[in-house]
Amino acid sequence: MFERRLYHHIDWALLIAVLALCALSVATIYAATFDPTHGGSRRWVIQMYAIGIGLIAMLVTVTADYRTFTDKSHFIYIAILGLLLYVLLFGHESKGARRWIPLGAFNLQPSEFAKICVALVLAKFFGENRGAPTWGDLAVGGILTGIPLALIGKEPDLGTAMTLVPILLAVAYLAGMRMRILGIMLVAGLLAAPIAWKFVLKDYQKSRISTFIDPSQDAKGAGYQQIQARITVGSGGLTGKGFKQGTQGQLRFLPEVDNDFVFSVLAEEQGFAGVLVALGLYLFVILRALEAARLAKDRLGAYLVLGVLASFTFQVVYNITMSAGLAPVKGLTLPLMSYGGSSMIATLASFGLVLNVRMRRFTN
Amino acid sequence: MAAPVEDRRRLTLRLSVLQYMITVLFSVLALSFWVLQVVQHAKFEEMAENNHQRTLALRAPRGLVLDRNEKILVENRHAYSISIDRERTKDLNRTVRVVAAVLGLDEKGLRTIVDRHRREPTYRPIVVVQDATLAQVSAVKARKLELPDVLVEEMPTRRYPETMGAHLFGYVGEVSDSQVSEANGLKSGDIVGQSGIEKIYNAMLMGEDGAKRVVVNSVGREIRTLEEEEPTEGHRLQLTVDYDVQRAIEEGFDQLGFNGAAVVLDPSNGDVLGFTSRPAYDPNAFAGGIDRETWATLTSDEDLPLNDRAIQGRYSPGSTFKMAVATAALQEGVITPDFKVHCTGSANFYGRPFKCWKKGGHGTVDLRHAIEQSCNVYFYTIGNMTGIDNIHKWATLLGLGEKSGIDLPNELVGIVPSPEWKQARFKEKWYAGETVSVSIGQGSVSVTPVSMAVYAATLANGGTRVTPHLLKAVDDGSGWKPVPPPPPRSKAPLDPDKLQAIRDGLFLVVNGAGTGHNAILKGYDISGKTGTAQVISNQGKERAGKTEKDLRDNGWFVFFAPRDKPEIAGVVLLEHGVHGSNAALVAHHVLDTFFAKKEGRPLPPKPEFKANLVP
Prior knowledge:
The complex is a heterodimer of chains A (364) and B (615).
Chain A: H1 4-7, H2 12-32, H3 43-63, H4 66-71, H5 73-90, E1 92-94, E2 97-103, E3 106-108, H6 110-128, H7 135-154, H8 158-162, H9 164-174, H10 179-200, H11 203-213, H12 222-236, H13 247-250, H14 262-295, H15 299-323, H16 341-359
Antiparallel strand pairs in A: 1-2, 2-3
Helix pairs in contact in A: 2-3, 2-14, 3-16, 5-6, 5-7, 6-7, 6-9, 6-15, 6-16, 7-9, 9-15, 12-14, 14-15, 14-16, 15-16
Chain B: H1 2-39, H2 41-52, E1 53-58, E2 65-66, E3 72-84, H3 92-103, H4 107-117, E4 126-129, H5 134-142, E5 150-159, H6 166-169, E6 172-174, H7 177-182, E7 191-193, H8 196-200, H9 202-206, E8 210-216, E9 222-229, E10 236-239, H10 243-256, E11 260-265, E12 272-278, H11 284-287, H12 292-300, H13 309-312, H14 322-331, E13 341-343, E14 346-349, E15 352-355, E16 363-365, H15 367-373, H16 376-386, H17 388-397, H18 419-426, H19 432-438, H20 449-461, E17 464-465, E18 471-475, E19 480-482, E20 490-491, H21 496-511, E21 527-533, H22 538-544, E22 554-561, E23 568-574, H23 580-598
């Protein structure tokens, strides 16, 4: 299965960049959760374990031919739907949401793996259809994406659910979806926005959006995190306040410092210089993965790469924008950086697939 | 085979579009971070500092107040205040509700306090409890997480260790809105003197608040101190007051139980040795913010305990006024000390009988004995001869009907009538019969106790109208600097021989057959004069019949000692004290204490005398 010569085609640059981001993650979590009064927290250690498990998962997704995964994608899809249903019914409830399956040492978050699964199933579906996707193809793709999306949204975890949409859009786009169709969808989306505002969105979601537009209208409530995020990032300056020296993060003016706002802490302590390094690494990883899609032996591989890359990129861009207080606050983590085992494992596994596609560009 | 190639080209093209889009997106992100972190850095850095740094005011202790022998009269104690920091409040209503419940306070009252300060800048915490009990402090501290916006601060609070001289020391309280706008140095929430020397020397006593910059976390817990600027304690003040003399006055009043006032001076320079007004209040009740109930009790009390009778009470001087009449008659050459009048117990002037207090009369008396016996007929006669204008002139020169100029706020002025005064006040002509009443200190004469003390001092020192004053020295931190006594208000050109005749009479009042016998102190030549002033005319008393109101006469005693080289002079007034001889009891205890202290003898014990209540 794994031929020796394939080893020479592994994209070491991409792998190193991904590992560099992992290292940055451990360091930032260490700093963000450092509590001198309690002798530090163990979260950075747990994150290291997650990276370790993630690398094993990566090994698995690299070793087998990616076509094996896409061929079995319908089984994987059904398994994931089963897990999502299980979570909804029996999942661990925390802060009013059921997102996790407790597995002793840590909680498994199936929605993180649903992203890979959707990428696999869409790659297979659009890969089998030659020619530009028709309305019918889009409808099938929409249903394939919509079912897990609805299940995740029901948890509720709207943030993660929305990350499935870019997968569909990206794969369909690459499969040759007519620009006109994209345009129609865009217009329909714009038209639907006011209706969604009125009938679909819940009050807390509306207030998040309206406070984003004017955070000062609720400086102590919903706008608080956004204002604090800007202060955190802005006060970092060019070179930052220094490792573990950030006042905003250390003194907990910003919540979720190891999670949603981990990038704010990085920006505060390492300054604009650190931000440029992190942004550069992410950009490199994304462009390098796009390169893998371009080099892919078949359309299936290209679609698969773009599929996993789409939710990754969407999340990276959104989270970084949010951590600078420039987007409404939403519970979206920063892949490869935020504290969270499922996300780390799923992300590393998906990069295994990217490496896989590139590595096997010459095989039959 | 054509289709896949075509397909491949489109795929590559679309990937390139994505590539560019992503690159642009990341450039925009980098640019945004550059704007936030580099361009707007200063603004956000300041905001971050405001977030985690808090400046706490360190209240400066007010300066200590000491007596003339450096015994502490007013000091400070540690108290805890509880306040709400609105910058950390997410829901002020909720905080008010919880704080009221936690502290056991009335929610409505708390809301009123908060509303009163609502328009102040939010960074200034609103003090809701000034002097919290330990139970309240620990209740708040236990709910630190629930109430991150509630602060407990230690602040020095005034303490008056002895229940004495309430009106003299005055009290402190939160600065009022009008006071804030008046004086620049005062900010809302400051504790300032509101009466007494606390008020008049507030600027010296206040000191300068310090500040402490601390790092706090998001729930307001202090993490560490960045810098601390120590508060500067207010200047220490040394008063002219002698603790033991003051104590003696208070003991005398405590023993007799009358309302009234007393002022004791050093006649040579106007040093106030003791000063009281009764009924008194407890200045400690104000120090930590007076509660509504206590305030209501104080202000609605018919006895007006907040009134400083020593400088604001105006009373008929009665017989104590006779020295002024005698001075006028002697100095204007109307009589000599040997001028005699025959008293039969009553005399007619302008068709009206004027009674002497002694039914059978005093017989023939000269000035010395008229003063000793307090013969009314003698003074009716010489007053009538001297005329109201001369009486007015000399009484004023002796300090009556004038402000004493004491360094206490809101002194009122008494009245020594004259035809001009009556014309201006009532638009009426002066009647000669009024002069007769005025001659024995009745009618429209009214004086404040402090002016009576000045009067006694002026007679004692030979005519110098000293200015009573309380401040002896100030220590601004660099050691005591004496404060020179204020210059005398005026000097009455008294002929020593004529004055001596009056002083002989005053000596006899105490040491002869006079009414001031209660004040006698063997070897110290106490001189003095009682006065028993009606609060209502005899006819009025009859008309009033049985009434709840206290219609008993006021009792005065003015004094100085020793006769030839006076070191102490003063006045005691007992409201409804029935007779001036009762006031002399208090004076006796004061004088006894003064001389015992001066000579290093043991001080006299707490007096056990009783007032004679038979009119």
